[in-house]
Amino acid sequence: MRSPPRDRRGPAVAALCLALILICAPAAAQEAVFRVLPGGTSYEASVQVTGTEHTFWTPGLMGERVPLQVEDLEVLAPSGPVEYRETGRGAIAFPEGNYTVTYQAPVRDNRLVAAFDTPHAITVTLPEGFDVRNPLIGMISPGGVISSGPNGTTEVAWDRMTVVEVRFYTPDREILLTTFGTIWLAVALVMLLPLLISRRREG
């Protein structure tokens, strides 16, 4: 006996709701890990990529895409390294699949910028002796979470970002900033003290 139409609506509605949830739910962002090397002049990167190509770039002064020069580049599949070919400045191509791209790139003026075409879960690790917490000499892109890592390292993490920036500093720069600020505060007090004394006498 054929079941009435209303009996079949329940499973159909449930299937429709499940499909809508799967469509609307955001896909998990691929991961990108950057580790600034001791000395702070270069970093190592490990980036998850999917597809047939990847582009290395950094934002220019006007927001334009500037090709990034990388070294020690490898495209790694679960089974090992995969051959790739260069298709232009800062661009490579490889067989379609899921890979981890590793490379090294320079850091200039204690500033690291990571840029992608699609959102990534990004982590930047600073070696012991570097920090970002003083807003006068350090900075991170909005949304970054700062935490302490192993062996005195500092980690900054973002959930889903296409571009992040980190400007870090050494303890020497923080000491210099504190000393400079103390000197200027002392000079300001010396200059203001006679004025305050004269106003008090006039009062």
Any chance you could write out the topology, listing elements then pairs?
Layout: H1 5-24, E1 30-36, E2 42-55, E3 57-59, E4 65-67, E5 71-77, E6 80-82, E7 85-88, E8 91-106, E9 111-126, E10 139-140, E11 145-148, E12 154-167, H2 171-202
Parallel strand pairs: 1-9
Antiparallel strand pairs: 1-2, 2-8, 3-4, 5-6, 5-8, 7-8, 9-12, 10-12, 11-12
Descriptive report:
There is one protein chain. This protein is of the alpha+beta class and 203 residues long. It folds into two domains: 26-169, Sandwich (Immunoglobulin-like), CATH 2.60.40; 171-203. It has helices spanning 5-24, 171-202; strands spanning 30-36, 42-55, 57-59, 65-67, 71-77, 80-82, 85-88, 91-106, 111-126, 139-140, 145-148, 154-167. The strands form two sheets. Strands 1, 2, 5, 6, 7, 8, 9, 10, 11 and 12 form a ten-stranded mixed sheet that branches. The longest helix has 32 residues, at 171-202. It starts with a helix and ends with a helix. Mean pLDDT is 83; it is low at 1-8 and 12-26.
- What is the CATH class of the largest domain? Mainly Beta
Uncertain segments: 1-8, 12-26
Q: How much strand? A: over 45%
Structural class: alpha+beta
Q: How many strands?
A: 12
Helix content, binned percent:
25-40%
* CATH homologous superfamily label of the largest domain: tricorn interacting facor f3 domain
What's the structural domain tally? 2
Distance between the termini: 105 Å
Average pLDDT, to the nearest integer?
Answer: 83
Which terms summarize this structure?
single chain, 203 residues, alpha+beta, Immunoglobulin-like, 2 domains, ten-stranded mixed beta sheet, two-stranded antiparallel sheet, 2 helices, elongated, disordered N terminus
